[in-house]
Amino acid sequence: MNKVILIGRLTKDPELNFAAGSGTAVTRFSLAVTRPFKKDETDFINCIAFGKTGETIAQYLTKGRQLAVTGSIRTGSYDAKDGTKRYTTDVVVDSFEFIGSSNNGGAGRDQGSFNNNGYGSSNTGSDYSNPSGNFGGMNFEEDMTPVDDGDMPF
User: Fold this and answer.
1) Alpha-carbon separation of residue 51 from 2, 68, 74 (angstroms)
2) How far apart are the C-alpha atoms of 82 and 66, rounded to whole Å?
3) Positions of the region Disordered (predicted)?
4) Which of 22, 26, 65, 145 is the most exposed place for a label (fewest CB within 10 A)?
């Protein structure tokens, strides 16, 4: 499984470009992510977002803005102008969420999320309960087998 979840602040304004030929939006940005348990250590993670995700990031986010991203790690390489081989590691963004204001003390009222996974909008709410108790008319109690606590492996 290749899954990455990051929360950090943009180190500079995102750079939006369009791929030659296809015209697909390609946005590159870097997140400053503080390490847990290490007070003064920060990692700078290069990220790339394609299509509408990239366009939205470029349009609404600026340096210092706090952001949560989910995606996957992609590695690559290229030959530099001096003839040396350079290796890259990027997080390809699948979805993101505005989680705070910019570092300059903004209000942070514009929290929201964007999901570009092809399955519609994401549910960022924390209430996953079903108040009616009706799960499509299915009665799960008929399939339940009682289990004694002594039979549990933990």
Assistant:
1) 21, 18, 17
2) 36
3) 104-154
4) 145
Question: From the CB of residue 122, how many other CB atoms can be counted at a distance below 10 Å?
Answer: 14
Phi, psi of 120 (to 5 degrees): 90, -170
Q: Is the pLDDT of residue 91 over 80?
A: yes
pLDDT band at 101 (very low <50, low <70, confident <90, very high): low
Q: Is the pLDDT of residue 146 over 80?
A: no
46 and 75 in contact (C-beta within 8 Å)? no
| Best CA proximity match to 53, nearest among 145, 128, 137, 121 | 121
Residues shown for the chain: 154
- Provide the whole-model pTM: 0.65
Cα distance between residue 136 and residue 80, in whole Å: 58
DSSP 60: H
